[in-house]
């Protein structure tokens, strides 16, 4: 069955870094666009970053531009989110998502907490 398993979340102080990973299985990873979303308490889920299936196009939310980098490694069926210069407002549950046409899959999420 389809699985997206996020990892790499945790506790970090402002200015710190984390690298999230999302390991995919059960579908043809290389033909799917991959994205990261996040949801903070009391807020709607928001798009953080997207990378297309080829890996040459990336889009970021304005709030993370210049700090976060999305990348994919098709040989490992994995998408990453490198998060640098973390801020308190980056605290959220981070989810990865795979999309191709009408097909979309979500992971279960990983908690990122930035605390001072």
Give a structural overview:
This protein has no helices and eleven strands. With 116 residues, it is mostly beta strands. A hairpin with a 2-residue loop joins strand 9 and strand 10. The radius of gyration is 13 Å and the shape is globular.
Could you give the topology of this structure?
Blueprint: E1 3-7, E2 10-12, E3 18-25, E4 33-39, E5 46-51, E6 58-60, E7 68-73, E8 78-83, E9 92-100, E10 103-106, E11 110-114
Parallel strand pairs: 2-11
Antiparallel strand pairs: 1-3, 3-8, 4-5, 4-9, 5-6, 7-8, 9-10, 9-11
Distance between the termini: 40 Å
User: How many individual β-strands?
Assistant: 11
The helix/strand order is: EEEEEEEEEEE
What's the alpha carbon Rg, rounded to whole Å?
Answer: 13 Å
Mean of all residue-level pLDDT scores: 98
Biggest sheet layout = 7 strands, mixed
Q: What is the 3D shape?
A: globular
Number of helices: 0
């Amino acid at each position: 069955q389809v699985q997206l398993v996020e990892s790499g979340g945790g506790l970090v102080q402002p200015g710190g870094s984390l690298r999230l990973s999302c390991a995919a299985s059960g579908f043809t990873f290389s033909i799917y666009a991959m994205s990261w979303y996040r949801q903070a308490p009391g807020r709607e889920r928001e798009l953080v970053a997207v990378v297309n299936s080829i890996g040459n196009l990336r889009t970021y939310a304005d709030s993370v531009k210049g700090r976060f980098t999305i990348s994919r490694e098709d040989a490992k069926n994995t998408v990453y989110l490198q998060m640098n210069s973390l801020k308190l407002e980056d605290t959220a549950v981070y989810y990865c998502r795979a999309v191709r046409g009408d097909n979309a899959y979500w992971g279960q999420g990983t908690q990122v907490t930035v605390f001072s």
